[in-house]
Design a protein that fits this description.
- The structure is a homodimer.
- The first copy, chain A, is mainly alpha-helical.
- Chain A has seven helices and two strands, in the order H-H-H-H-H-E-E-H-H.
- The first copy, chain A, has helices spanning about 5-10, 10-30, 40-50, 55-60, 65-80, 100-120, 125-140; strands spanning about 80-85, 95-100.
- In chain A, strands 1-2 form a two-stranded antiparallel ribbon.
- In chain A, a hairpin with a 7-residue loop joins strand 1 (about 80-85) and strand 2.
- The two termini of chain A are about 30 Å apart.
- The interface between A and B is large, with 58 and 58 residues.
- Chain B binds a DNA duplex through helix 5.
Chain lengths: ~140, ~140
DNA sequence: CTAAAGTCATTGGATGTCCCAACGATAGGC
DNA sequence: GCCTATCGTTGGGACATCCAATGACTTTAG
């Protein structure tokens, strides 16, 4: 029988949590110089892809609470990276779009985030890195 | 070129974060019935394994802030699951030990946590589960 | 066409994690 | 004996996550 702690620390949820915490820290530090937080970067990327998009849709895409999305977009809008326009088709919704400045900072942050991720998975060779990604993706999608 | 959101969502840090968030939720729900939080369970497991152990050592083992460890052990002690005794060899330290009640609830929680983890990695077959664990462990230890 | 139910953005509040700083008490190196 | 470090504890603050509720609006059902 394994000991209680080895038992706990060898649990997938524990290991994934530790790896995720380190990855989160690395990426956060990397893009901090651009003045963006993790979820601000994510919201900016999602907005860039889905063109005019409602806040609720962004929240569902990124698994972010609607309340927190308000603050995230407030920051992005004050920084001039996104715009909130009333949606003519549905007056409840905000149509969020990316500004040219937002696209520029997104490109820089994407590169920084990718570099941070390379540092995270540096202990693995390229083949193993692809394996890890594939396994994580299947666990994620199988939820 | 991949789209911005696909780019971000295919980053290891993002995928690990989503998997970890789901695993955390599954385990937290599983052991909630026993009245324990995630970190209380972890501290109990670590105490069970390392016998009389100082709070600072527990914090380093589990990557928990000493400030938060105070509250965690307060809860465990009030519930009768651990004891804090003065360490005769080093009067600064608390020698934390597990009570029989603590060992009993730990056994139940360990089983519940393991079941939750099986649900988490259910999309993978046993071979792939071992691969994922090995890769995560190497990324974690390579930090 | 009207009424009920649902959604949207927003606000408020609670909790948990992490970091930094301090304190008195104690330990170890010199 | 001094100096530095560590231990448990307290305090504060930044940040992420989650739940509840509100008013405006949309959709659906009768």
């Amino acid at each position: 029988m394994t000991s209680p702690l080895q038992h706990l620390q060898s649990l997938p949820s524990w290991l994934a949590g530790r790896v995720a915490a380190r990855g989160r820290g690395l990426v956060a530090d990397a893009i901090a110089g651009e003045g963006l937080r993790l979820m601000q970067h994510a919201a900016l990327a999602a907005t860039a892809e889905y063109g005019p998009v409602a806040q609720a849709d962004l929240g569902r895409l990124l698994a972010v609470d609607p309340k927190d999305m308000v603050g995230i977009l407030n920051h992005l809008q004050r920084a001039g990276y996104v715009l909130r326009s009333p949606d003519p088709a549905d007056k409840r919704k905000n149509a969020v779009t990316v500004t040219p400045e937002g696209a520029a900072v997104l490109a820089r942050c994407a590169a920084l985030a990718e570099a941070a991720n390379e540092e995270l998975i540096a202990p693995l060779n390229p083949d193993e890195q692809r394996q890890l990604m594939a396994l994580l993706a299947r666990v994620h999608e199988g939820a």
